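A reminder from the course coordinator: this example appears on the midterm review sheet, so study it carefully.

Given structure:
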């Protein structure tokens, strides 16, 4: 059983384990609590806090997620005491002399990060804030100030906003958690949406297709994820050989729902077939054609995982997250009872719900209108009032710059960012500006592109709060947009032009 206690005012969950002890200190803060212009501040603090641990004989690490940040290790009891007490002490006095070095470490880490389908899908579903931020670059890392770091620490890394889990016999002797008191536990951030209509689709950089959906949290949705995986594997891998990898995932959210994801890869020439196969699998389950044998097989597999002797220890981290999110701690018996009670009809109900909230990533050049999906918006519905400025090389391309925002209009299509809904404004020393709205819309305004006096550029973003502005390093000349030079006019030879042709005598 999971036992509940506390250490220095921090709620603590304990479950027995046969091997070495492991433990984790979790805080209810993550990317979703940040703003895009300061994205990465939590990750930066995680790195700084771990620096003082140095090289150790036990395995330890940190993890910053959408809504939770965790410091965890596996080792002996005195290792647990040393590590957790050390992390808390470090959070109270971060080694700020390491700040510039850790900035570079994070930038290097980011440059080598592979985007997962979830990272690509998140900004399209949630926009450039909240749960969409894990899909964006950590724009804040190079510019976050020491004062901003200290404010973030005082706000989020407190004993009231923390939970501890220990997989072992109990609380190790001598364990202390010297965290400051912050007075409150922070609720998970609200869920936003950049999708006016679902189910929706968009074209993305993937050799294959991917899908996600927001569904009710619980065992029925877990089994739906497993049944969908079986359907995709059977049809796309075994029957047709179109995919090598077919995978699904289920992730509980801090706000009481869950997200089911699915992905299937494809060769370039097989992308249409794989996209069609994925949609067929989704629709098959959504209309109620759920094979009871698949549900039973999925249930058996999950039951085996839950009845493993160390299952409760393996669930401690997720249980700590649930505790911090205000959700009840559920016993193993409750989980098994819920799993056993799920019917085929309930799985079909989740499948139907998934289609109503679904977001589909299709390969470039493809669409999913034919299957009832609506194209996610790539343009804005409004244009800001203000002055109009032509773009140098195209009379159909113009900027609208006004007191409420900026728009770029090309023909009949517009991209608009309102200052009241601006997630970040990036500024380069050459004067270039990139504004990103909460809905993910982008407007780039460059001095090289504005016809007339480029000084108007300095009106863009005036009055935005400083924490929404990112001052970027100088760009290479090759990165600065330039007007497209007109095609040279080459006069035709006289004998062919008709202007100087000799008249016949």
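Designed residues:
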């Amino acid at each position: 059983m999971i036992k509940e206690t506390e250490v220095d005012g921090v709620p603590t969950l304990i479950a027995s384990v046969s091997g070495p002890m492991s433990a984790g200190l979790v805080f209810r803060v993550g990317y979703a609590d940040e703003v895009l212009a300061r994205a990465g501040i939590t990750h930066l603090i995680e790195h700084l806090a771990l620096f003082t641990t140095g090289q150790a004989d036990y395995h330890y690490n940190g993890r910053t997620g959408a809504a939770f940040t965790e410091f965890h290790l596996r080792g002996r009891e005195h290792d647990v005491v040393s590590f957790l007490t050390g992390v808390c002490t470090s959070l109270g006095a971060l080694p700020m002399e390491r700040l510039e070095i850790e900035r570079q470490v994070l930038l290097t880490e980011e440059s080598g990060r592979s985007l997962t389908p979830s990272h690509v899908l998140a900004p399209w579903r949630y926009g450039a804030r909240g749960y969409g931020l894990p899909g964006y670059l950590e724009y804040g890392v190079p510019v976050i100030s020491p004062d901003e770091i200290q404010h973030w620490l005082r706000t989020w890394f407190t004993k009231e906003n923390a939970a501890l889990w220990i997989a072992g016999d109990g609380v190790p002797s001598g364990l202390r958690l010297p965290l400051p008191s912050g007075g409150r536990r922070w609720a998970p951030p609200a869920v936003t949406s950049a999708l006016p209509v679902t189910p929706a689709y968009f074209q993305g950089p993937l050799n294959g297709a991917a899908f996600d959906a927001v569904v009710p949290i619980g065992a029925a949705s877990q089994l739906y994820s497993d049944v969908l995986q079986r359907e995709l594997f059977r049809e796309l891998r075994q029957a047709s050989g179109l995919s090598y990898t077919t995978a699904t995932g289920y992730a509980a959210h801090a706000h009481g729902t869950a997200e089911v994801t699915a992905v299937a890869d494809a060769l370039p020439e097989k992308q249409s077939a794989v996209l069609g196969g994925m949609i067929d699998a989704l629709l098959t389950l959504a209309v109620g054609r759920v094979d009871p044998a698949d549900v039973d097989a999925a249930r058996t597999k999950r039951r085996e995982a839950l009845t493993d002797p160390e299952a409760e220890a393996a669930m401690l981290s997720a249980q700590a997250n649930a505790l911090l999110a205000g959700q009840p701690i559920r016993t193993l018996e409750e989980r098994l009872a819920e799993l056993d009670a799920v019917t085929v009809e309930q799985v079909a109900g989740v499948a139907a719900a998934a289609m109503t909230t679904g977001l589909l990533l299709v390969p470039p050049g493809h669409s999913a209108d034919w299957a009832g999906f609506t194209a996610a918006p790539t343009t804005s519905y409004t244009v800001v009032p203000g002055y109009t400025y032509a773009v140098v090389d195209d009379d159909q391309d113009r900027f609208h710059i006004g007191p409420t925002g900026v728009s770029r209009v090309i023909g009949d299509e517009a991209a608009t960012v309102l200052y009241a809904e601006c997630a970040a404004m990036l500024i380069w020393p050459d004067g270039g500006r990139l504004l990103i709205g909460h809905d993910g819309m982008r407007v780039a305004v460059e001095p090289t592109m504005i016809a007339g006096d480029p000084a108007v550029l300095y009106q863009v973003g005036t009055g935005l709060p400083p924490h929404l502005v990112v001052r970027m390093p100088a760009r290479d000349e090759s990165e600065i947009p330039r007007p497209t030079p007109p095609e040279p006019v080459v006069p035709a030879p006289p004998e062919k032009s008709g202007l100087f042709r000799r008249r016949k005598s």
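Residues 492-505 have pLDDT under 50 and may be disordered. The radius of gyration is 27 Å.
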